[in-house]
Amino acid sequence: MPIKDVSDVVEQVRAWDLAGARNGDWTVGVRLGRTRGNKYVVEHVLRFRGTPDVVEDKILETATADGRSVKVSLPKDPGQAGVHQALSLTRLLVGFDIAASPETGDKATRARPFAAQVNVGNVALAGGGWVAAYRDELKSFPNGRFDDQVDASSRAFMEISGSSAKLPDDDQSRPPAPRRPPRLGTQLAGR
């Protein structure tokens, strides 16, 4: 993915993949922009570990820094705890444009629409200290140790592109066709 000037971005979303511990998975917020020419720019990635109260504080701090024009997309896990978390974060972010929705399909299936755009060169990166870790994780997906940045990127792309959250593999009336995991590394390797 090339480094790109973000001055022609006309729409933005910050999507989150949430974790709630000091060890293990990361909480990640990916801010993705869409340009006038319908290209996409990963503008910023925030990646950290922390307890649920730290996660809430960082999400509010980040939304405030991003500004009210940036939509916030949150995962809503199934069950009462997930509903409560989405409700709590939506109340915390009063005045912001919030979309909370369940994750559907497996991680590889959710990553396919974003991977397709990455692999045809339709996604660029804004510069920043987060770029190396971001590229490394995307290149190692789905076999890498972490996939949190991939999950947040997939969510951001689904939100900003208007892609349906329900993907073909979610149809339980028929068995899913065998599919290879998406390849995110084609453009990330600098080719």
How are the secondary structure elements laid out?
Layout: E1 9-17, E2 27-35, E3 40-48, H1 52-66, E4 71-75, H2 79-92, E5 98-101, H3 107-119, E6 123-125, H4 131-140, H5 148-161, H6 185-188
Parallel strand pairs: 1-4, 3-6, 4-5
Antiparallel strand pairs: 1-2, 2-3
Mean pLDDT: 84
The CATH class is: Alpha Beta
The total number of structural domains is: 1
What is the SS-derived class?
Answer: alpha/beta
Mind explaining what this structure looks like?
The protein has 191 residues and is an alpha/beta fold. The chain has one domain (9-165, 179-188): Nucleotidyltransferase, domain 5 (2-Layer Sandwich). Helix content is 37%, strand content 20%. It contains six helices and six strands, in the order βββαβαβαβααα. The protein has helices at residues 52-66, 79-92, 107-119, 131-140, 148-161, 185-188, and strands at 9-17, 27-35, 40-48, 71-75, 98-101, 123-125. It has a six-stranded mixed beta sheet with strand order 5-4-1-2-3-6, sandwiched between helices. β2 (27-35) and β3 form a beta hairpin. α3 packs across α5 (148-161). It is globular. The chain starts with 8 loop residues before the first strand and ends with a helix. Mean pLDDT is 84; it is low at 165-178.
Short key terms for the protein model shown above:
6 helices; single chain; 20% strand; alpha/beta; 191 residues; Nucleotidyltransferase, domain 5
Question: Gist?
Answer:
The protein has 6 helices and 6 strands, in the order βββαβαβαβααα. It is of the alpha/beta class.
